[in-house]
Amino acid sequence: MKNIIQKLSMFEEARVFHLKFWQTPSFLFLIMGIATIVSTYATYLISSRNDDPEIIILGIATIAGIVFSLGVLLVKIISRIIIISNARNEFLSLVSHQMRSPLTGTKYIFEIMLSGKSDPVTPAQEELLTQGYQANERMLLLVNDLLSLTRMAEGDTPFDYADCDITKLINDVKQESRPNADKKKIRIIMNMPTQPLPNVQCDEKKIRFVISNLVHNAIKYTQPAGTITISARTEEGKRILISVSDTGIGIPSDEIDKLFTKFYRATNADTASKIGTGLGLYIAKNIVDRHYGRIWVESEERKGSTFFVSLPLKQRRMSS
After folding, report:
1. Class of the domain covering 162-319
2. Rounded Cα distance, 281 and 268, in Å
């Protein structure tokens, strides 16, 4: 209920669209509705007490004028929002494409120099090269996330729905994540039901991104020798519920609602100095939303987090 109220809030809409609250479409619709009701009632009162047709016509004209003026203002505001949104997406896409190639080339150069295949480097030089490589990786991660974000915003990312073995997908993510987990001596446990899970109709690559992102974050924010548990089960034979639990740093309770917004990172995540763009969970939520699913988190600071992903077994687009 709290999330629904927040989404309907004019102040939240103003924050997202960078407008004054009285400029938001929701506020203008509200005023338009109130003005129509009040004007209609006032016209009724006047006409019931006065048989003069000129006064009745004047009342109706007043209603039409108010509604028309508010409608024009509403169209202008919505047009402004669309223009700003399109310009921002075009700018991000252009910058991202222009930056990706040189960053990829720089990464290759760093890897060659750090591998020792070129001239030997001193320990001091190796440390500087490592710092440069990590900085380059952060930029490349940001560029890739921005590209994914703009493609989804522009509708350029098609979704290929097909039957997916979710157990195999989770196991593949676990195996891919094991090297990073082993470096921190973190155990990854799979907690699956004894009966085979049904196939899920989804875009396998994109759902793999979602689960991989959750596991990657769990490894990143879990202390050495911690534990990560990946679970899955069916819900009423209609949905599948996937969860990723960790024993990490957790999330402050007053920041949980903001976690899936664009560019947001929890304050304790910044304190932990972990590489991240604040876009991974935002993109994951967009993917889950496109599957008519739901993603959320339960967390307690310094005690760990559990991220949940609920997906329908069958997609509406495939069944229609």
Report:
1. alpha beta
2. 16
